Amino acid sequence: MNDDGSAAAAPDAHHRRTLVRKTATAVIVGADDALVEILGFEPDDLVGKTSLDFIHPEDQTLAVENWMEMLGSPGPARSLRLRHRHANGLFVWLELTNHNLLDDPAHNCVVADMRDLSDDLPPESDPAVGVDAVASLSSDAGRPMRVHEAIRARELLLHRLAEALPVGVLHVDASGRVLYTNQRLHTIVGRDRADTYGAQLSTVVAEDTVRVTEAFDAALHGGLDNDVEMRVGSSGDPGEKEQRQCTLAVRALVADDGEITGAVATVTDVTDSVRMREELRLRATFDKLTRCFNRASTVEALEKMLDDDSDGGRPAVIFVDLDRFKGINDDFGHAAGDELLEVVASRLQRAVREGDVVGRIGGDEFLVLCPGIATAAQAMRAATRVADSLRHAVKLDSGQVACRASVGVAWTADPAADADQLIGHADLAMYEAKRADSGHPVMYRPAA
Questions:
Q1: What span, in angstroms and rounded, lies between the C-alpha atoms of 188 and 257?
Q2: d(Cα 121, Cα 422) in Å, to the nearest integer?
Q3: In CA terms, which of 38, 83, 143, 335 is 20 to 30 Å from 384?
Q4: What single-letter DSSP state applies at residue 204?
Q5: d(C-alpha 149, C-alpha 165), whole Å
Q6: Contact partners, residue 243, CB within 8 Å, separation at least 6
Q7: Domains parsed from the chain with CATH numbers
Q8: For the chain, first and last CA: distance in Å?
Q9: Does this model's pTM top 0.85?
């Protein structure tokens, strides 16, 4: 550094080191001739431009952070390695140390000590350049650049892999501070990168945050892995109000000496899978037309009722078969028949108690299961309510039709009775009711 504040030529005989003067806003105001050998620019080509104009886009965030840190205190900032644009359009690696001399009346600028590392050679052992304000380079400055490039290539590969994953990725240090997130995580949780994992996952519904906190605590304090389910209030789509179902997998990061250095977590949006499973469950459980239980799930429900004697009673089985249903299909069409079945199902569901089951087991056949029935008389009262609910005419789109059903009832106190036996007895009673054609339910009676 000359006494007038201008940058002195670097004493490096090979011109692998240069000094550049900048304002507090990083505008270049002066450079030495060594810059021509390193970057190919004449000093006048750089004056008036900001240093960011010559730094590789991927390195600019690091450069800005270092610059702001340097402005906070006089003297040299920590050294860092950045790629700088050469006059030929390529980029070369320089090790840079910014020195805050803004409060020094003799200089009133920032002096950047820049060392060329592109030849993969260690720094020269020459004395420090310029006045004592220009410090020596960092201790790892001699690391060959091929190693540095290999590390950056590995980091870039990992970053690209993380961005390609269909799951959110979250990396935190031992204190829970966020070190890395990928874009998929932001999309799933509906917020940009935050400082801590708690803030990053702040859209998790309140009831699930305890499990999330426990999973991270187990990893960061005990080195334990954990998988938990959680719901996220928003996926980031302003038009979506439904909660997202997610799985969170937290894995502790433990060094060779046993120290816990942090944790990595993945967040998988399983909403579509949950919806699909639920849809398959509904299809396997309920009749699509009437939304009653289907035959298989009705029989399964009866078997569970027979196994459960906690209510002190036994289930009654009420078999319902619509009268003259085929004539309605023939006269009005199958669409009218489907419409009638929907009305019948709705009336049956309104006629039964909470906990009773209404199932459609055939074209126009329904089963009503009533658990906890103590006597045959109580079973008959339930069957009468069912029969009465179907006595009134139904107004369809194609016209009004009469509605009536034959109803058979089976109930027994015998604990050995099984589902197939009860359904068979109710079916026999239903046929007896159909022959009587009275509209009243018939209770199954064993043959004398």
A1: 35
A2: 91
A3: 335
A4: B
A5: 24
A6: 205, 231, 232, 233
A7: 17-147 (3.30.450.20), 165-273 (3.30.450.20), 286-443 (3.30.70.270)
A8: 121
A9: no
